[in-house]
Amino acid sequence: MIENGVLYTSPLEDVLPGVTRGRIISLAKSLGIGFEEKKINFKEVDNLNAMFISGTSPKILPIAKVDNITLDVNNDIMQKLIKGFNEEIIIYINKFR
Prior knowledge:
Blueprint: E1 2-3, E2 6-9, H1 19-30, E3 34-37, E4 52-55, E5 59-62, E6 65-66, E7 69-70, H2 76-94
Parallel strand pairs: 2-3
Antiparallel strand pairs: 1-2, 4-5, 6-7
């Protein structure tokens, strides 16, 4: 979740501590993007600028809409994360060529 230039994720007790999550957090920190673990209630979704899901297959996949709330799939912070994450994957793959 992104709000006012800060990347938020649920605390570890509420989500799986996966590799992709960890890489995105590290990437955000290296890009100077603020990061915080925070529980965000469904009622607060309309305050968010952007949301995404992440994982091995989807990488960073923007969420366009939650119920009647439209989110910014072109959010600058999210686009920086997507670009940086894709670049990290290419670097990783190229190590084995």
